[in-house]
Amino acid sequence: MKPLILIVCIFFAASSFVQGQVYNVEYAKAPPERKKRPSILGDEPGKTEELRRFFNENLNLNLVADTNLKKGRIEIICTIYASGKPKYDMDNNVQIYESDRTTRLVTYDHKTKIGREFLRVLNLIPQWNPAEYFKDGSWQKIKLTFLVHIKIPYKPDNPDGIIFFFTMDWGGG
Question: Measured between alpha carbons, how far is 28 from 16 in angstroms, rounded to an integer?
Answer without folding.
Answer: 19
